[in-house]
Amino acid sequence: MLCGTRAAAAGRLLVLRRHGSGMAARVWLEPGYKCLSDEPVRVRVGGLSPLQPVTMRAGLSDEKGETFGSAAFYRADERGELDLNRSPSLGGHYTGTEPMGLFWSLTPVKPFSRLVKRDVAGSPLRVHIEVFDGHDGDPQERPLASCVNERWFMKEGVTRIPVREGRVRGVLFVPPGDGPFPGIIDMYGSVGGVVEHRASLLASRGFLTLALGYFGYDDLPKDFLNLDLEYFEEAVNLLRHHSKVKGPGVGAIGISKGGDLVLSMTTFIPHVIAAVSIGGCNANTLGNLHYKNITLSGLGITLDRAKFCESNLVDISEVTNNPKDDENKDCIIPLEKAEGHFLFVVGEDDKNWNTPLFAQQAVERLKENGKNNYEILTYPESGHLLEPAYFPFCYASFHRLVGLPVIWGGQMKPHSIAQIDLWPRIQRFLKKHLEKQSKL
Questions:
Q1: Which residues contact 388 (CB under 8 A, 6 or more apart)?
Q2: What does residue 311 show for φ and ψ, rounded to 5 degrees?
Q3: What does the radius of gyration of the chain's CA atoms come to, in whole angstroms?
Q4: Phi (first) and psi of residue 267, to 5 degrees
Q5: Contact between residue 1 and residue 158 where contact means Cβ atoms under 8 Å apart
Q6: What is the DSSP string of 268-332?
Q7: Whole-angstrom Cα distance, residue 39 to residue 30?
Q8: How many Å separate Cα 194 from the centre of its chain?
Q9: Contact criterion met (CB below 8 Å) for 8 and 32
């Protein structure tokens, strides 16, 4: 957990050796070496020779021992200094002036690994930053200087509470203070289990958040081929009756399969009044969804449309069937029945499924029914996995359902810039609709 007290110095330094100028190179972080993982840091280097070429490297190891690294080429100014807020990268994993480029360009050494933070309470992501002489930047050499950035997922005072109440399984994150706080349910997709890193960051930003499992966790179903919306309604009621939640309504955020689930929740469950669907579908996907006397069939797939690319990667963007085809009409979520508000988030280069088409169909359906309770954010050259700000870009990784590594899409730089833009917009949307509620 990130402590509130920052180091008195502007970052932790580790000076390793002197170079030709006789000065000791140093690298430091502002405002400090500890921060939340959705916060930027300012990376600065001093003690270099005037106009000295250097290679900046960043690296981390995740909880499974997988390593991620990035590198960029820079040139010091006339005073022998670098400031990544102003100094452009001349090459490497990215080019141009990108203050946090070393972080969002962290790339797995083992191909198709996806960075997932499991232990959000007990340990940070430790990003090692090193400075090397020249533009070859051989990592086997001794660096001129290095430091470590601890990127935490819970600020001081946030409480993590495992939930096993009734049928509901998940983890609750409660912000510090008396509240009341906007309540949020957070879900991911086919990865299964309970994914906590976004929920813990939302709690650090003042949302009382339930990271909700719905399959592949504890005693929950092993898959999502038959889900009942009453389970999600039970989770909604548990959350909104929490003593620190500002009710009567709550919000929901989901990505991928979680994206269509939050649309269904907002459509059928009256107390879900704001939904953020990231890379979601306007139809119920894959398995059947039951609610009282209603069943939404699962939108099917056509495997023949899968494309096999380089390195045995699979492009499944055209595999999911079109919701508007006659045989799929029972799958479409009747969004026009919702009284709550929707935020559709679209990566135009999504290779998981045709998110731009699905969002277009959702908006058309709402407009045809005289509804304007939606916002849409579209990001060019961005893929499926739009995560919180500064999270490393993932182009491809193993897909649990496909059984092979799939392409998620996007180009590293525009996708990462999209994440930086999107994260505060999500928070503003949720606050707008949850902080000033009237009684339902």
A1: 37, 38, 197, 198, 201, 419, 423
A2: 60, 30
A3: 23
A4: -75, -40
A5: yes
A6: H-TTEEEEEEES--SB-BSSEEEETTEEEPPB-B-GGG-EE-GGG-EE-TTTBPPTTSGGGGGGB
A7: 11
A8: 14
A9: no
Question: What pairs with residue 329 in β-bridges?
Answer: none
Phi, psi (5° rounding) for residue 329? -65, -25
Residue 5 CB contacts under 8 Å (≥ 6 apart), including other chains? none
Beta-carbon contacts of residue 113 (< 8 Å; ≥ 6 apart): 66, 68, 397
How far is it, in rounded angstroms, from Cα 51 to Cα 75? 6
Residue 66 vs residues 140, 314, 363: alpha-carbon distances, Å: 19, 22, 41
Cα gap 383→407, rounded to integer Å: 9
pLDDT digits (tens, 9 = 90+) for 25-58: 999 999 999 999 999 999 999 999 999 999 999 9
Q: What is the SS3 string spanning 108-123?
A: ECCCCCCCCCCCCCCC
How much is the pTM?
0.93
* 308 beta partners: 314
Q: Read off the amino acid at residue 272.
A: V
The residues of the chain scoring below 50 in pLDDT are 4-21, 440
Q: What one-letter code names the amino acid at 106?
A: L
Helix or strand or coil: residue 240? helix
d(CA 106, CA 382): 17
Instruction: Give the strand pairing for 67-75 and 91-92.
Output: antiparallel
pLDDT at 17: 46
- Is the CB of residue 343 less than 8 Å from the CB of residue 311? no
- Which amino acid is residue 73, in one-letter code? F
Positions marked active-site: 256, 350, 384
Question: Where do we find the tokens 């100014």?
Answer: 77
Of 164, 214, 209, the C-alpha closest to 188 is: 214
Instruction: Note the pLDDT tens digit of each residue in 396-430.
Output: 999 888 888 999 999 999 999 999 999 999 999 99
Q: What's CA 69's distance to the chain center, in Å?
A: 19
Q: Is the dihedral of CA 46, 52, 58, 59 positive or negative?
A: negative
> Tens digits of per-residue pLDDT, 217-253?
999 999 889 999 999 999 999 999 999 999 899 999 9
What is the spatial distance between Cα 76 and Cα 415, in angstroms, rounded to a whole number? 28
Q: Rounded to an integer, what distance in angstroms lies between the CA atom of residue 147 and that of residue 428?
A: 34
Cα separation, 23 vs 298, whole angstroms = 65
CB 288 within 8 A of CB 380: no
> Which pair of structure tokens corresponds to residue 40?
């930027």
* Burial (Cβ within 10 Å: 0-12, 13-18, ≥19) of residue 9: exposed
